Amino acid sequence: MIYFLLVDRFYNGNPANDGAIDLADPQAFHGGDLAGVTAKLDNLKEIGVDTLWLGPITQMRTEKFFQWGAYHGYWLHDPMALEPRFGTLEELATLRREADARGIRLVLDTVYNHLAPDHGFVQHHPEWFHGPSKIVDWNDPAQLQQGWVHGLPDLDQDNREVRGWLEAATDLWIERVGPAALRLDAVRHMSPEFVRAMGAEARSLGVETWGEIFDGNVATVLDTREKAGLDAVFDYPLYYALKDTACGDAPLAQLAAALDRSDHVPGHTWLTFVDNHDTPRILSACNGDAWGAEAAIALLFALRGRPVITWGTEYLPLGAEEPDNRADMRWDSLGVDRLAWLASLARQRRESPSLSHGDSRVIALGEHHVAWERTHGGERRWVLYNEGAESIDIAGVHFDPRTVTVYDPGTLPAPRVHGGTVRFKSSKKLPPGDRLVVVGDAPELGSWDPAHGVPVPGKVTLEDEVYLYKTVVLHADGRPPTWSEGGNRWIVGGGGVLRL
Ligand SMILES: [Ca+2]
Ligand SMILES: [Ca+2]
User: Fold this and answer.
1) 145 alpha carbon, closest ligand
2) What is the pLDDT of residues 443-460, one digit of tens each?
3) 161 shares its domain with 31
4) CA 1 / ligand 1 centre spacing (Å)
5) What pLDDT score does 372 carry?
6) Cα–ligand 1 centroid distance for 310 (angstroms)
7) What pTM did the predictor assign?
8) Where are the beta strands (DSSP E) in 212-368?
């Protein structure tokens, strides 16, 4: 169980290092520091945290940039120095020692892509940066990698001095902290070759690299991960699926398909989450529906990956956007019930090999329910999400309405989803020359590219999995394709005839 916090927003353990703070201004610094994190380690241990990801602690810009605050730490000033507002190297050593004593590993947030706005080096070492340019086309890798994200001076990691500087900083922080991993910020905005080189350096010192690839497409995220040689990636595909199903009207097939599309890499590749500092808090995403938010969290701890929770999950805060989604930890809002609930989710996962390490396959899917069987070694668990008002029976087992359940099926055989050949038919009349195709979320269905869709009538062979699809009309006269209206439809396995 991984816990993420921004140091300034967590707890002020040493007012002597505060500098200028203004608790009434959500864009100002608020005084949180490393001594504060150390002081609260027992609270984290109590809910089962074993890994603590700290937002950036290197020396940062501290003045606002226009109306935007600097408290988050992603505006790098000096990657070799510790931010003085967060404490001293002695206080950092104390945090490391006290975390070790509780079996908590640290993860360092590492910014290689850019420096702070108006950094002096832009004047003094212009050759260290890509020329100022905006990212206009977010699908163009050159723009993504060399553009100035939100106007931040973009480091040229092909410059030998820059690379040497960042590599020396990496070695220094690994030496100082002995982290379990480096969380690499903004991976999409750097060349995969550079990220791979930094990862190799970290790995040679026994440290993993985790990448932020802010993209909901499984294929894109896995392709970037492969090229950049990352040990793990943040699971934006599953994040969107959890949010859109538990909080929104998306079909539960979206959740099932997100897992099926990514099941060819080991589960621990994925760092799963329901919110972070760049997204709405889950309760806001769910428009205040606490049941939906809790269901998403319960699923987070029952599905594959390594679950990451964001500070404040202990009391389910609201916060739709920056800076509300990065508000101070409210230590007076902790409630015994929800702390015990989080601790029980973490314990259940820790004690079950199939929940923490198992493979998943869908065993039931309907409009209001989805169920998986998870297996590892000799152990099996069924995970059922029933968001509907009716109870569900699976292989004779009864599941109540509005529940997320982890069930030990003993020797009960699970229902199977079977793959096979599915034949598409349609009685739709199209103008001469127009063609109907099925396009969906897997290579067999053209990976959402109508040019590679399956012609109707036609057939395709599918695995024992769940697929999302739409129908698309390709026009003879060159007009853009017409997609079927409404949300995605879904197919469970293959076999038989599907009339469209
Ligand atoms: Ca302080
Ligand atoms: Ca860049």
Assistant:
1) 2
2) 999 999 999 999 999 999
3) yes
4) 27
5) 98
6) 21
7) 0.96
8) 232-234, 270-272, 306-310, 359-365
Give the tens place of pLDDT for each residue, 289-310: 999 999 999 999 999 999 999 9
Q: Residue 14: what pLDDT? A: 98
* Domain span holding position 385: 359-407
Say how many Å lie between the CA of residue 102 and the centre of ligand 1.
23
- Number of Cβ within 10 Å of residue 204's Cβ equals 10
b/e for 349-368, b at 16 or more Cβ within 10 A?
A: beebbbbbbbebbbbbbeee
Q: Are residues 279 and 234 in the same domain?
A: yes
The answer on 123 and 21 residing in a single domain is: yes
pLDDT at 430: 94
Q: Which residues are found with C-beta within 5 Å of the ion, ligand 2?
A: 113, 154, 189
Gap from CA of 189 to ligand 2 centroid (Å): 4
Helix/strand/coil for 5 = strand
- Say yes or no: 212 and 249 in one domain: yes
Q: How remote is the CA of residue 191 from the centroid of ligand 2, in Å? A: 8
In this structure, is residue 412 part of a structural domain?
no
Which pLDDT score is estimated for 348?
A: 98
Nearest-10 Cα torsion for 479, 484, 486, 489: -140
User: How many angstroms does the Cα of residue 327 sit away from the middle of ligand 2?
Assistant: 28
Q: Assess if residue 413 is contained within a domain.
A: no
Same domain, 246 and 377: no
Same domain, 42 and 96: yes
| Co-location of 333 and 205 in the same domain | yes
Do 127 and 158 contact (CB within 8 A), yes or no? no
Domains held by the chain: number: 3
Which ligand sits nearest to residue 187's alpha carbon? Answer: 2
Contacts of 391 (CB under 8 A, 6+ apart): 398, 399, 400, 401
Give the ligand with the smallest distance to the CA of 23: 1
Evaluate whether residue 272 is within a structural domain. Answer: yes
pLDDT band for position 271 (cuts 50, 70, 90):
very high
For all residues of the chain together, what is the average pLDDT? 96
Which pLDDT does position 373 carry in this prediction? 97
Q: pLDDT band at 96, cuts 50/70/90?
A: very high
CATH number where 391 lies: 2.60.40.1180
Same domain, 175 and 152: yes
Contact 56, 63 (CB under 8 A): no
CA–centroid distance, residue 73 to ligand 1 (Å): 15
Among 341, 357, 373, the domain-final residue is 357
Ligand at shortest distance from the CA of 18: 1
pLDDT of residue 442: 95
* CA 12 / ligand 1 centre spacing (Å): 5
Q: Would 23 be classed as within a structural domain?
A: yes
Q: Give the Å distances, CA to CA, from 136 to 143, 148, 151, 235.
A: 7, 11, 12, 25
